[in-house]
Amino acid sequence: MKMQFKLYRYNPDVDAKPYMQDIEVELEPSDKKLLDALVRLKTVDDSLSFRRSCREGVCGSDAMNINGKNGLACVTDIAGLKQPVEIRPLPGLPVIRDLIVDMTQFFKQYNSIKPYVINDTPPPSHERLQSPEDREELDGLYECILCACCSTSCPSFWWNPDKFVGPAGLLAAYRFIADTRDTATNERLDNLEDPYRLFRCHSIMNCVDVCPKHLNPTKAIGKIKELMVKRIA
Amino acid sequence: MVNRHVIGAHYGLRDWLLQRVTAVVMLVYTIGLLAFLVLAAQTSYEGWKALFDCTWVRVLSTVTVIALLLHAWVGVRDIWMDYVQPLGLRLTLHIATILWLLGSFIYAIKVVWGV
Question: For the complex shown, is ipTM > 0.85?
Answer without folding.
Answer: no
